C-alpha cells in the first residue's frame, strides 16, 4: 500500500504522517493505530520515502532504521539536506535501540527514537508531542515572515542527493577519513553502492576523488594561509609531510613551498 491511506475525512486538516518501513506487519500496525487521528502515507523503501516526502510534504516522518536500499540514517541525512523536507520532524523506528544508534540519529537531525516492539500509548504520545512542537515552530516562523523554501519545481534525484552528501562528508573530514568500506558505512551506504555512485555520477573512484580533494584543499591552504607545510599535510589527511610533498609535486609539478611562493607572486591561478 503506497497511496495516502486515511480514515480521516477528505479535506480534513489533520496532520499528514509519512511512514517509511519495509516490514508489512509494522506498516499495517502503525497505520491502523495512527490513521484514526492523522492522515497517513506509506513507503516501503528509502528512495520511495524520499520521493513521497518531497511530493507530499508531511508534517512528520516515521522512519525505520533498516531499509532495503539504504539505511534510515542515510535517508535522514538526505531529508535534512533538502530545503523541502529539512524542517520536517523525523522519528526513527528501530529494533536496535543502542546508545550509538541514538546518538548517530539525533546527530543527523532526528528528533526522537521509538523502539520496537511498539507500545501504542508511547507511539501516540511521541507523535503528538513532536507534531505539537513542529506546529509551534511553524507558527513562530510564520509570525516572523520567514520566506518559504525556494525550489526549482523539479523532483530531486535521490542518487544525486546521495552523491552530494557523500562529497560533503568527505570534504568535512579530509583530515581523518577512514578506508572506503568504513567511509561507506559512516555515510550509510554499502561499499559497492558508494563506488557505483561515484563512478556513475562523477566518473571517478572514491579514492581518486579523495586524493584530488586533498590536493586541491592543500593548495588552497598553501596559497591563502601561513600554515606550515606539516600543518597543511595533517589538515588534508597526511601524517607524513614527505608523502604530502611527493603527492603534491606529482599533482602540481612543484613542491608545496614553490607553489606557495608562486601563489604569493600572483602566478598561480
Characterize the structure shown.
A five-stranded parallel beta sheet has the order 2-1-3-4-5, sandwiched between helices. The longest helix is centred in the middle third of the chain and has 24 residues, at 120-143. It contains twelve helices and five strands. The protein is an alpha/beta fold and 269 residues long. α1 (24-34) links the parallel β1 (16-20) and β2 (39-43). It folds into two domains: 16-143, 3-Layer(aba) Sandwich (Rossmann fold), CATH 3.40.50; 158-264, Arc Repressor Mutant, subunit A (Orthogonal Bundle). Residues 146-155 have low confidence and may be disordered. The modification 4-aspartylphosphate is found at residue 64. Residues 16-131 form the Response regulatory domain.
In short:
With 269 residues, the chain is α/β, with parallel strands linked by helices. Helices cover 55% and strands 9% of the residues. The chain has helices at residues 24-34, 46-56, 72-81, 99-107, 120-143, 158-172, 180-187, 191-202, 206-224, 229-235, 241-252, 256-264; strands at residues 16-20, 39-43, 60-64, 90-94, 112-115.
